[in-house]
Design a protein that fits this description.
heterodimer; A: 141 residues; alpha+beta; Sufe protein. Chain: A; three-stranded antiparallel beta sheet; 4 helices; globular; B: 230 residues; alpha/beta; five-stranded antiparallel beta sheet; 11 strands; elongated
């Protein structure tokens, strides 16, 4: 097992504390709530979308670990303008990055901060949960 | 007792909190404590108030020790034990505490642990501890114990408990674990209150098995209820 402190590096801590996108929308078109029953992390994701399906606004409320909060923050920074198909691609890219050390998906290079999580399979879901919640919200529109 | 005072007493009891009435026997002047606030014409000093609260926590009525004419009538609700973390120790602690007369609530957002199969007959709340504690409206007859094994969940629970009138706050973990916890809680702004935390949790009975640690915790929760923190 790799050193656990390696996954809590400064970029992760900064992303988590910045909590980009944290909050709630006045009139979301869709929302989804997902939790991880094993660790208690939970994510509420709210979106408004354009006619094209692209995300026009997004807000999230996360109770969870640093990794989960940092992942939600990356979404807050980069997801506006993306469609459900884009988020599906990025979400699959996150899994590739975690499991196979693949490079971060194009346009989402910041996800490389999660590369050290590769050595901690029990924590993959911490990073994935906000993406799963966003996808669930987009699919419900 | 004046009618208006009686109505205040009824309201306080109906609100579900533990309530004490103090009567000065020489002239009948009264004070009412509803678990958080003092009311009434009779003024008490800080020591007297602390003494009344100790009697209320233990559901005892009678002459306030150290005074010869202050009569305390306690209307205590059953003490509550709030167990944060549906862990192995909690599976023993919850039924033991219920047998010992506590209203027991187990809080854990981890649905895989907080299941009715593991906690038959126990009130379970699947929510983040600080949010759950907010809804439980902790008062001075509450004891809070954190047993999640995860600072992510224990810390917010401890912050909420330390900012409440709960008479007992305990946290599982070694002395070393507790030192790190104190550093985090100090950074979170409750450094002036961390001394209230009983850690390592429970009386030192020597046992290390989960069911034995549960006995240690319950013993300490009862001891502090009657004898105070020291």
């Amino acid at each position: 097992m790799a050193d656990a402190s390696a996954i809590y590096h400064q970029a992760i801590k900064s992303l988590a504390s910045d909590a980009v996108g944290h909050g709630a929308l006045a009139a979301p078109d869709a929302r989804a709530f997902l939790d991880n029953p094993l660790c208690g992390d939970c994510v509420e994701m709210q979106v408004t979308t354009l006619r094209s399906g692209a995300i026009s606004a997004l807000a999230h409320h996360v109770r969870g670990c640093l990794l989960c909060r940092a992942a939600a923050s990356v979404i807050g920074k980069h997801a506006t303008g993306a469609t459900a198909a884009d988020i599906e691609r990025v979400s699959a890219g996150v899994i590739e990055l975690l499991q196979k050390q693949a490079p971060a998906p194009a346009g989402w290079e910041e996800l490389a901060v999660f590369a050290p999580v590769h050595g901690h399979p029990s924590r993959y879901r911490c990073v994935q949960l906000p993406f799963e919640a966003l996808l669930a919200a987009l699919r419900s529109t | 007792m004046k009618w208006a005072f009686y109505e205040r007493l009824q309201t306080a009891i109906a609100a579900g909190g533990s309530t004490a009435v103090v009567t000065r026997l020489s002239d009948g002047a009264q004070a009412l404590f509803d678990g958080t606030r003092w009311d009434g014409a009779l003024a008490l000093d800080d020591d007297q108030r602390a003494g009344v609260q100790r009697m209320l926590i233990g559901d005892r009525s009678g002459i306030l020790p150290g005074s010869d004419q202050l009569f305390v009538r306690s209307y205590a609700r059953p003490p509550r034990l709030i167990v944060v973390g549906a862990a192995h120790i909690s599976q023993f602690l919850a039924p033991m505490a219920a047998l010992a007369g506590f209203e027991v609530v187990v809080i854990d957002p981890r649905r895989a642990f907080a299941t009715t199969e593991r906690f038959a007959g126990v009130r379970l709340i699947n929510a983040w501890p600080d949010e759950a504690l907010e809804t439980l409206k902790l008062d001075s007859t509450c004891a809070v114990v954190t047993l999640t094994h995860d600072p992510k969940l224990d810390d917010p629970a401890l912050i909420a408990a330390l900012n409440s009138p709960a008479y007992y706050v305990g946290a599982l973990g070694s002395t070393r674990t507790h030192a790190k916890r104190v550093a985090r809680l100090t950074e979170a702004g409750v450094g002036d209150k961390v001394a209230r935390i009983h850690a390592p949790v429970g009386l030192d009975l020597g046992g290390r098995a989960p069911r034995e640690i549960a006995v240690s915790i319950l013993a300490e929760v009862v001891q502090v209820r009657y004898k105070g923190a020291n």
